[in-house]
Amino acid sequence: SAMKNTKVRGNWGELQLQRVIELAGMTEHIMYEQQEHIAGDGDAARPDMIVRLPDSKKIIIDAKAPMSAYLNAINATNDIEREQLLTKHAADVMAHVNALAKRNYASRVDGSLDFIVMFVPGDTFLTAAFDANPEFLEQAIAKNVFPASPGTLIALLRAIAYGWRQEQLAENAAQVVALGKELYERVGVFTGHLQKVGTNLTKATESYNSAVASLETRVMPSARRFETLAVASDQALPGVSPIDVTTRQVSLPELEAGSGNQS
Q1: Is residue 99 part of a domain?
Q2: DSSP codes, 144-186
Q3: Could you report the per-residue pLDDT of 80-125, keeping only the tens digit for each?
Q4: How far, in Å, CA of 258 to CA of 263, rounded?
């Protein structure tokens, strides 16, 4: 069958990993990167996924766990052959654990945690390895390789996605606080300018009223004498009324308290 082909099996593992990512609600290029090249001294690597944590840490996920022996065991024609293949399956998976441990991603990827998640695309693959080697889990963890089935990995990634959402909410809240502070300060500056405009309007009104008073008491009496001398025009001099409306002052406690900080 197609699953006997190594490339097909690898692609199937990556496809299952992609489905897990989608179910977990992860966002690419923010929460994770796929197939990112990692340089090395003659030992370059390309992990299937690098998960980013909100605190700039990273988790490496591998999806190339061997499945050949297990698939062959399913198709075995007798119990002896099946047991031998399942034992080989456990040995193959453990060999893959050792290979992952030797890659030492923690020292090659900035911010990487000191363990690797080995994704296995089905619970049955892990169960078979545990049955053939009861100490498999302890041995893998001792090498900082954590086997994970789809269900386990979904739970892990969902927790990480939740952390990212909380981080985003915290950032949004901080931006709202900063924006509110900025707006509050700008309102203070604006009201200060508005108060100055009101003060200047009051002064202009007072100057205008003083000019009207001077016109009425000093200029107009002299001008009206021309009428008695018959040198005035037929049109009477127009009257000028003072302005009785006063400007309303801005009265805010915040303005009074922060008047020294306005610019």
Answers
A1: yes
A2: TEEEE-HHHHHHHHHHHHHHHHHHHHHHHHHHHHHHHHHHHHH
A3: 999 999 999 999 999 999 999 998 888 888 889 999 999 999 999 9
A4: 11
Residue 45 β-bridge partners: 38
CA 66/CA 64 separation, integer angstroms: 6
120: helix, coil or strand?
coil
Q: Which two tokens stand for residue 136?
A: 């498999």
With pLDDT > 70 as the criterion, what percentage of the chain qualifies? 84
Q: For 195-238, how does the pLDDT look when each residue is reduced to its tens digit (9 = 90+)?
A: 888 888 888 888 888 888 887 788 778 777 776 776 656 666 67
Residue 48 resides in a domain: yes
User: CA angle at residue 17 from 144 to 83, to 5 degrees?
Assistant: 70
pTM: 0.66
- CA-nearest of 19, 102, 117, 13 to 66 is 13
Residue type for position 211: A
Q: Which domain holds residue 42?
A: 6-170
Q: 74-83 burial, b for 16+ CB within 10 Å, e for fewer?
A: eeeeeeeeee
In this structure, is residue 21 part of a structural domain? Answer: yes
3-state secondary structure of 55: coil
226 inside domain: no
Model confidence pLDDT, tens digit, residues 113-141: 999 999 999 999 999 999 999 999 999 99
Residues 4/69, Cβ–Cβ less than 8 Å: no
Structural domains in the chain (count):
1
